[in-house]
Amino acid sequence: MYFCFSTAYFVAGSDIGKFTLKVVDDNRTINKSVHFRPQNNLFSINELASLWEKKIKRSLPRVTVTEEDLLNAANEMRVPESIVASFTHDIFIQGCQINFALDKPTDLEATSLYPDTPFRSVDACFDEFVSKVIEDHVKNSKPTSGEGLKIAKPTVRSEGFVITLYAA
Fold it and tell me: What is the pTM of this model?
């Protein structure tokens, strides 16, 4: 058993749409495969978890999941758990996003095609999510008797855990 350091590229849905619209009207992309590989959004699952822990200002408990655990979960055919397990195995164990080079004449990478168009960072996505949690907390706070609205400083709960992946 060895520690799995596979990484994955994370791309916001809005960026996929933004770059797809650019690609459609770009003659350089005719009969080409355009890949999304923004270097600022390349993370291992542990790096992603650490970034989230910084945002919520607390540590999450660690859980070790083996490759066999993921494959067993994928084979159980429970939705959505089996789908998540299958994708997690394919991305972080098999390395399906990074285990090939973009060296064919038909391969293009979006950040090379459009260097002046930024991708939204995972960091910014996490910031937005945390601010929405706080905003929802404020909206759902109720006024107290005669003192106006009292809002306690909300905290993001750590009801999840961090997965450390191992491959056989």
Answer: 0.76
113 within some domain: yes
Burial 6-17 (b: 16+ CB within 10 A, else e): bbbbbbbeebee
> Which amino acid type is present at position 161?
F
Can you say whether the dihedral through the CA atoms of 13, 38, 18, 97 is positive or negative? negative
68 falls within a domain: no
Residues spanned by the domain of 102: 2-60+97-159
pLDDT tens, 35-62?
999 999 999 999 999 999 999 899 999 8
* 165 contacts 67 by C-beta, under 8 angstroms: yes
How far does Cα 56 stand from its chain's mean position?
16
Q: What is the dihedral of CA 40, 168, 88, 51, to 10 degrees?
A: -40
Count how many domains the chain has.
1
- In a domain, residue 33? The reply is yes
53 is a domain residue: yes
What is the tens place of the pLDDT at every residue in 97-141? 999 999 999 999 999 999 999 999 999 999 999 998 888 777 776
